[in-house]
Amino acid sequence: MIQQPINFPARTDQTSRPTQSICFFFNAQIHHLPHAMPLALELSHDPRFRIDIIAAGADHVALARDLAARHGGGRLNFIHLDNIWLRTLSHLSGHASPPKLATLLAARRRLARYDAIVVPERTSLLLRRLGLADSRFIHTCHGAGDRAVGYDPRIALFDFVLLAGEKQRRRMLAQGLIREDHYAIAGYGKFDLTRGQRPASPFTDNRPIILYNPHFSPRLSSWQAMGMDVLRQFAADDRFNLIVAPHVRLFDNRRKRAAAERMLAEFAGLPHIHVDLGSRASIDMSYVQLAAAYIGDVSSQIYEFIATPRPCLFLNGHGAQWRDDPNYAHWHYGPVHECADRIPDKVAAAMAAHGMYDAAQRRGLSDTFTSGGAPASARGARAVADYLTRGAPAARPVPTPYKLREALRHG
User: Fold this and answer.
1) What is the DSSP string of 159-215?
2) One domain, residues 349 and 379
3) Edge-first strand listing for the sheet containing 20-26
4) Sign (positive/negative) of CA torsion 80, 278, 358, 339?
5) Nearest to 60 by CA among 43, 81, 74, 39
6) pLDDT at residue 92 in the model
7) Are residue 293 and residue 235 in the same domain, yes or no?
8) Are residues 240 and 319 in the same domain?
9) Number of domains the chain contains
10) What are the strands of the beta sheet with 241-244, ordered from one edge?
11) Share of the chain above pLDDT 70, in %
């Protein structure tokens, strides 16, 4: 078990079998797994449920198996959704996983067998339009940031939603995305996977490590306008070690990654620059834990970083009017800069002035994540088990036109 397992009802005899089947379905990039696997690991010890892990990506299944082995998974079935059609589409698209819609079409008959389907993304709600009207859909969210995309109107279509904390509850209730008895504040299950983790540094010296974590969206990211400037300035500065670990979606395409590797080749031999375009270390909080300071823009990873309050600064590469915008609430946790000029000096200044922002970070952390008592995964498992065993019917699709393009873009 991850930690402090909850006490599920014991079997009454040796022949009793699970009464409900739950599928944890991963139909997006690999960074979604840590947001749902903690719940799967907890529920895998409840004899009332059969738990299957299904993904079209071989890397997804491998990571799910590793997490189960490391954190004490119970009875789990791992299913790689694989056929020549999906492999061909994946190859043509250049992505590690096939396109989401193709995966849904290939998986719909198999998924129709389950009483409940747990997903950390929203595109899979299209399954309701593909005939799965009776399955109950449970959403774990993926991240607990401030941007509007985290409060997608499609969340209202889920039967049950797990939330990280009060901030999500407040905003989702205000927007009519959740309703009483169909959600629970459980906390941030990803933290359960990283508690006690001691990642190895990619550097051989003890200089302070700075993490640069640009987002993938061209409209919001600092990468396009400032990324190479940031790297070149740190390359010429001997005060810091720099980890460059963009959101995995920035270079999740084979051709994009190859082009980026060519562009970044000038930094390959530098002992104080470490570039990671999408390894497991970029999604398991290894770099967040190693860093003394954070440079970012709009990624929800900032909340994983300030779980231990530390210096951070933000690059406004898209001219956002951010001060009174709740979608940029995290930009109050450190200085915001409109350009990357003298960025190592700005980092040093942010580290020296962290005391000005410490209280704001702690307030934001408390509002974003509930904590205390049982681990988040245990609280989430209890809430989901209670919901499923009380026999609530599945919701029906909202009778409005479904914007497929938006669904595929935002996940």
Assistant:
1) SEEEESSHHHHHHHHHTT---TTSEEE---THHHHHTT--PPPS-SS-SPEEEEE--
2) no
3) 76-80, 49-55, 20-26, 116-119, 136-139, 160-163, 183-185
4) negative
5) 81
6) 87
7) yes
8) yes
9) 2
10) 273-275, 241-244, 209-213, 293-296, 312-315, 336-337
11) 91
* The two structure tokens encoding residue 369: 């994540």
Residue 360: which H helix or E strand, with range? helix 358-368
Provide the pLDDT for residue 169. 97
327 phi and psi angles, rounded to 5 deg:
-70, -10
Alpha-carbon distance of 339 to 337, in angstroms, equals 6
CB 172 within 8 A of CB 376: no
E strands, 191-305, where?
209-213, 241-244, 273-275, 293-296
Among 10, 24, 13, residue whose Cα is nearest residue 63:
24
Q: Beta partners for 206?
A: none
Mean pLDDT of the chain: 91
CB atoms within 10 A of CB 406: 13
Q: What is the pLDDT of residues 147-195, one digit of tens each?
A: 999 999 999 999 999 999 999 999 999 999 999 999 999 999 999 999 8
Range of the structural domain that residue 79 is part of: 20-188+372-406
Which of 95, 107, 119 lies closest to 35 in space, CA to CA? 119
Residue 139 contacts residue 162 (beta carbons within 8 Å): yes
Q: For 7-114, where are the E strands, in sequence order?
A: 20-26, 49-55, 76-80
3-state class (DSSP) for residue 343:
helix
Q: Would you state the pLDDT for residue 9?
A: 44
Residues 6 or more apart whose Cβ sits within 8 Å of residue 178: 155, 156, 161, 163, 169, 172
Q: What is the mean pLDDT of residues 281-309?
A: 97
């849904």: which residue's tokens? 104
